[in-house]
Amino acid sequence: MKLVFLGPPGAGKGTQANLLSRECGIPHISTGDIFRENIKNNTELGKLAKSYTDRGLLCPDEVTNRMVEKRLKERDCEKGFILDGYPRTIPQAEFLYKIIKLDKVIDFSLPDDIIVERISGRRTCAACQTSYHIRYNKPKKADTCDKCQGKLVQREDERPEVIMKRIEVYNLQTSPLIDFYKKKGLLSSIDARQGIEDIWHSVKKELKI
User: Among the options 22, 79, 155, 184, which is catalytic?
Assistant: First the structure.
């Protein structure tokens, strides 16, 4: 089963990819993990990627494509994989389409206002990194971690103004992929406003597992 998961930040596609990975025994592959692994192991591609990221620049599609292609050739991908965070652009999607025959692309759709509510409500313990949410997973005492009594903080990239910028970038770069895969007959859409268990049920129904 060779899959791509699409969706804006906060849609929960990473959570669903992890559930599916355990269910089907196929790897959940995120571009972030691929980059970190290559940079950590000081591979040629890792060095090249680092030369861009160290300057605060986005890695060119060519470098990202080569990293993903190399990862998909590893043995654990023989039975399939779930790509999360790739492709991000039409050129990346066109490259992937040439090298791999995908079974399905699932788009986890979520309105902008719910994305902002979900992400901006997150709070993280500054000491032990335990996560909370001011609406869905409240600590017993406001701004205090249940586990270690550490102070709960809001990450900079989880502030509403930053989230709106992330959504804007997603819509400009990645949402055109929805039309791309729709034309290929590969796209299915799942309403990510549901709870985790309901979304998981929808994923299994869509994939017939």
Answer: 155
CATH numbers and ranges of domains, the chain: 2-207 (3.40.50.300)
Question: Quick check: is 193 catalytic?
Answer: no
Please say if 13 is a catalytic residue.
yes
What is the reported pTM? 0.85
Query: Is residue 88 annotated as a catalytic residue, yes or no?
Result: yes
Longest CA–CA separation in the chain, Å: 53
The three-state secondary structure class of 197 is helix
Whole-number percent of the chain with pLDDT over 90: 74
User: The dihedral of CA 96, 100, 105, 108: what is its sign?
Assistant: negative
In the predicted structure, residue 165 carries a pLDDT above the cut 80:
yes
Closest to 124 measured CA to CA, from 147, 96, 98: 147
55 counts as catalytic: no
Question: Angle 93-94-99 (CA atoms, 0-180°, nearest 5)?
Answer: 95
Give the angle subtended at the CA of 162 by the CAs of 16 and 91, to the nearest 5°: 60
The span from the CA of 97 to the CA of 57, in Å, is 26
Question: How many CB atoms are closer than 10 A to CB 165?
Answer: 12
Q: How far is the C-alpha of 2 from the C-alpha of 22, rounded, in Å? A: 15
